[in-house]
Design a protein that fits this description.
The chain has helices at 120-137, 148-174, 177-181, 186-214, 222-237, 241-248, 257-264, 273-284, 286-306, 324-332, 349-363, 380-385, 410-422, 442-448, 458-468; strands at 29-30, 39-45, 48-58, 61-65, 77-85, 88-103, 106-113, 313-318, 340-346, 371-377, 396-401, 424-433, 473-477, 486-490. The protein is an alpha+beta fold.
Length: 492
């Protein structure tokens, strides 16, 4: 049986207009809605032809800017008037003045046509044609002279992606469904290892070579190169769910907790084998590895601070998203050396809810020292403005922020670091991370994900530390990828 796309209703069920729309009036179009057509009215004033800017138009009338001091009165008749759009004359005949009004110092005359009606459809068709011609005549956004090596590398990467997609489509039809899309099995693990080592790593190397070349291109040519790259590669690269979500930004920013979940938990994700391969490409990129390495650095620092303690370790985690470091710490360490008391701050309620669902089972009914986690849902705006936000929580032994300072201008970063440092106990530590400019994933993030960061060198990080806290002992902590170092403040 054929199912209709929609239910056909009888006349008794149809609804008409309501309110002012009960009385039909021809729709009016503003001249700016008809661009790129040039809209004008030609009238004869004092024996000479005058061309007047058209303001709006309907089937039975128009409004235009009157050209001289001798203003007509309501009810006056024009024996001849012409309405034109470029070279096309849409109306030619008599008209009567229906309104005269002053707007921003100009006299606007409204007229009704005394002859035939204007074909609005014809005008809209002309607009569509002129718009198309205009787009064809303009220089494409991707066209820029030179930079042949960059263009070559982008084009070659596209060909490699096309080859991989075709080959993986064939492989997907030959493998059992559970090997590609099911739960973990030896065959599925081998498939992931093979694609990661044979395809993903080569693709990442290609992106890093493009990154090196793009850094040599003048800033004024970057928009065209970005468009060139997107036109060639987006259809492939954005098949990775993490990349697509970062590009679409459903929460308004790219690095939300769901993106982090892909990097932490779901590296081989996608609706097809090729999409899963693109996920592995994203997973192998330097910035993705840095996210996992900085998480490990924080986790290891927590373990180190917990050793040889008898009093609770008080921790403030800033913008921690899914709190992966805490989940791993509590999973890997069933019995901590000392009690752990954490304030987990994030502006995303969904991130805190997800962290709660994972952490709560790990904190309930533990053997040995207790773990307490407070989930604080507040905005980054308040974090930056309210110096008393954490007053009720007292002092902390460790404060860390892994991803926030990448988005803060230097004065804001200095002020926030100073505030955090003031909340440390004697012997406490503050660690803040910032990606460095040499991040090899920068081209991919900026050109394909619209994900810019405020990169800082290690010297610039140290300068922020000195400006924030002159009495702090400062040092750079390197995570394994050397892309996302931390600045450590130690309070004596």
């Amino acid at each position: 049986m054929t199912v209709p796309l929609h239910r056909v209703r009888n006349y008794e069920e149809l609804e008409g207009a309501q309110g002012r729309e009960v009385f039909f009036r021809p729709e009016r179009y503003r001249a700016k809605d008809l661009v790129p057509l040039r809209s004008e009215v030609m009238i004869t004033v004092a024996g000479s032809e005058r061309f007047c800017p058209l303001l709006d138009l309907s089937e039975n009338g128009a409004a235009f800017e009157w050209p001289c001091a001798l203003v007509p009165a309501i009810g006056d008749r024009f024996g001849f008037l012409s309405v034109r759009f470029d070279s096309h004359e849409s109306y030619r005949g008599e008209a009567r003045v229906g309104s005269v009004r002053e707007i921003d110092g100009a006299t606007i005359v409204g007229i009704s046509f005394e002859g035939r009606l204007v074909s609005i459809d014809e005008v809209l068709e002309l607009r569509a044609i002129k718009t198309f011609i205009g787009h064809r005549a303009g220089r494409p956004a991707w066209r820029v002279a030179g930079h042949d090596r960059c263009k070559m590398l982008v084009s070659e990467l596209r060909l490699s992606l096309e080859d991989a997609e075709r080959q993986l489509r064939t492989m997907e039809t030959e493998l059992p469904w559970h090997v590609v899309h099911g739960e973990s099995t030896p065959a599925r693990e081998e498939l992931e290892r093979t694609i990661r080592s044979q395809i993903a790593s080569a693709m990442v190397s290609a992106t890093e070579e493009i990154d090196r070349v793009v850094r040599t291109i003048p800033a004024e040519d970057i928009p065209a190169i970005r468009e060139y790259s997107r036109r060639h590669l987006d259809d492939f690269l954005l098949q990775a769910p993490a990349a697509r979500r970062a590009f679409q930004k459903p929460f308004g920013y790219p690095g939300d907790y769901e993106v982090m979940r892909f990097l932490y938990e779901r590296p081989f994700e996608g609706s097809t084998l090729f999409a899963k391969t693109m996920s592995l490409v994203v997973d192998e990129m330097a910035a993705s590895r840095a996210v996992r390495c900085r998480k490990d650095l924080i986790k290891n620092r927590l373990k180190l601070r917990l050793q040889h303690r008898s009093t609770p370790l008080r921790v403030l985690a800033i913008a921690g998203g899914p709190a992966q470091e805490l989940c791993e710490l509590l999973s890997e360490t069933p019995r901590l050396a000392a009690p752990l008391d954490v304030v987990l701050f994030d502006q995303d309620k969904g991130a805190l809810a997800y962290a709660y669902r994972r952490l709560q089972p790990l904190t309930d009914n533990r053997w040995g020292p207790a773990v307490r986690i407070t989930y604080l849902h507040e905005s980054i705006k308040r974090l930056l403005r309210d110096r008393m936000l954490f007053d009720d929580f007292g002092k902390f032994d460790l404060i860390y922020s892994a991803g926030l300072f990448d988005y803060l201008r230097a004065p804001t970063a200095v002020q926030l670091a100073r505030d955090f440092y003031s909340r440390l106990e004697a012997g406490g530590q503050l660690i803040i991370a910032n990606m460095v400019p040499e991040n090899p994933s920068r081209w991919f993030m900026e050109h394909h994900l619209d994900w810019p960061l405020l990169y800082r060198t290690r010297d610039e990080l140290l300068d922020i530390g000195r400006r924030a806290c002159a009495d702090a002992a400062l040092q750079i902590l390197e995570e394994e990828s050397h892309v996302n170092p931390f600045l450590e403040f130690s309070r004596n």
